[in-house]
Design brief:
The strands form two sheets. A seven-stranded mixed beta sheet has the order 1-7-6-5-4-2-3, sandwiched between helices. It has a five-stranded mixed beta sheet with strand order 8-9-12-11-10. It folds into two domains: 254 residues, Type I PLP-dependent aspartate aminotransferase-like (Major domain) (Aspartate Aminotransferase, domain 2), CATH 3.40.640.10; 138 residues, Aspartate Aminotransferase, domain 1 (Alpha-Beta Complex), CATH 3.90.1150.10. It is globular. Strand 4, helix 7 and strand 5 form a beta-alpha-beta unit. The chain is α/β, with parallel strands linked by helices. Bound molecules: pyridoxal-5'-phosphate (PLP). The site of pyridoxal-5'-phosphate (PLP) has 15 residues, from helix 4 and helix 5. Its EC number is 2.5.1.-.
Length: 401
């Protein structure tokens, strides 16, 4: 077995080589330990491992070397002390809540969150006595709005930045300061950015959550999640996974380690394509507005430049003509995948008002800024000209009307 000191390695190198432990087989690539349990050399060793007196593998609900390798690499890339991997992005958020909250505590959240996250908070945490308050989509940009809404019961502040699909940013450092002044923790769902584009912990956030299903896998194969942060918090979350069981499959963990190896390269390519597509869309006569924080027209472009290494690969845009026009553009595509998923090498296209945000009331949708003419594209890695041509078919027809 060999291990290397990786403390000076770049994220690119860490993603490929950190914590590799070669076995006696001398394999080159990280092995996949597809095993649910482990054996001991003696009864006494079993006793020591079970009691925790001696470190080592016991049972794959909480110890699996393939899962642990993924956790260590992602922690290194996020700049966190420890990572706990989970069976999905949603179970990462659930485990975080179970580990760190108790009845009577409150979450203060941006209202511009992934729909199931809102559902988890509202439908499940609330019934166990955890209070949820939301900051409106227009106010999340303003750290004073967070400060005003915080109460002595607030334990967690929770946000996605840039948001989906309107690319609204929160100032991570300023909102982290608000949290810390009131004894609360800031949690950032970093799924849209990955550590390649944004490192919330370095900006003052306390905890990062991920849906590894998106860019970390990057090729649409597997569901998984992770939580990264300081050891004191991660130990509580690890104990939830250990006892309650939302653990990551070693096979999926292995796929995700393969995903991490190319993450930097893929994110760079995704972002370059998205930036070029956003510019092209902004110049198209059928397009009323583009939501992409890499455009100088984005109201928080300066903050985006400070907070992000590149601007992400999800582009929202509104066409003139409402739902009919938006649907006609979507239905005119031949190559793009009509699906709500994102973070894939395949470009996907969706109509948020009737899919991802379809459960909102009209009033909530208007408040969130989700117009009927809005289309969301998760820009993949096909040739940019092919993506443009597929969108141009519908857009040119609209412009000609
Ligand atoms: C997809 C997603 C999740 C949930 O992740 P799953 O892996 O689908 O459970 C959470 N947050 C964001 C921002 C997402 O896009």
């Amino acid at each position: 077995m060999s291990t290397y000191d990786h403390s000076e390695w770049s994220a690119e190198t860490a993603a490929i080589r950190a914590f590799h432990q070669r076995t006696h087989e001398q394999e080159h690539v990280d092995p996949l330990y597809m095993t649910s349990s482990f054996v001991y050399g003696s009864a006494a060793e079993a006793m020591r491992k079970f009691s925790g007196e001696e470190e080592g593998n016991v049972y794959a609900r909480f110890h699996n070397p393939t899962v642990q390798l993924f956790e260590k690499r992602l922690a290194a890339m996020e700049g966190g002390e420890q990572c706990v991997a989970t069976s999905s992005g949603m179970s990462a958020i659930l485990s975080l809540a179970l580990g760190l909250l108790k009845s009577g505590d409150e979450i203060l959240a941006s209202s511009a969150l992934f729909g199931s996250t809102v559902g988890l908070f509202r439908n499940y945490l609330e019934k166990f006595g955890v209070g949820i308050r939301f900051i409106s989509a227009t106010e999340v940009v303003n750290p004073e709005a967070w400060e005003k809404a915080i109460t002595p019961q607030t334990r967690l502040l929770f946000a996605e930045t840039p948001s989906n699909p309107l690319a609204t940013l929160i100032d991570i450092r300023a909102v982290a300061d608000v949290a810390h002044r009131h004894g609360a923790l800031l949690v950032i769902d970093n799924c849209f950015c990955t550590p390649v584009l944004q490192q919330p912990l370095a900006l003052g956030a306390d905890i990062v959550v991920h849906s590894a299903t998106k860019y970390i896998d990057g090729q649409g194969r597997a569901i998984g999640g992770a939580v990264v942060g300081r050891r004191e918090h991660m130990q509580d979350i690890f104990n939830v996974v250990r006892t309650c069981g939302p653990c990551l499959s070693p096979f999926n963990a292995w796929l995700f380690t393969k995903g991490l190896e190319t993450l930097s390269l893929r994110m760079k390519a995704h972002c370059e394509q998205a930036a070029a597509l956003a510019e092209w869309l902004e110049a198209h006569p059928a397009v009323a507005k583009v939501y992409y924080c890499g455009l100088p027209s984005h109201p928080q472009h300066e903050l985006a430049k400070r907070q992000l290494r590149a601007f992400g690969a999800v582009v929202g845009f509104e066409v003139h003509g409402g739902r009919d026009a938006a649907w006609s553009v979507i239905d005119s595509t031949q190559m793009l995948s009509i699906t709500g998923n994102l973070g894939d090498v395949r470009t996907t296209i969706t109509h948020p008002a009737t899919t991802t945000h379809g459960k909102l009331t009209l009033e909530q949708r208007v408040a969130a800024g989700i117009e009927e003419g809005l289309i969301r594209v998760s820009v993949g890695l096909e040739g940019l000209d092919d993506i443009k041509r597929d969108l141009a078919r519908g857009l040119d027809a609209l412009a000609a009307c």
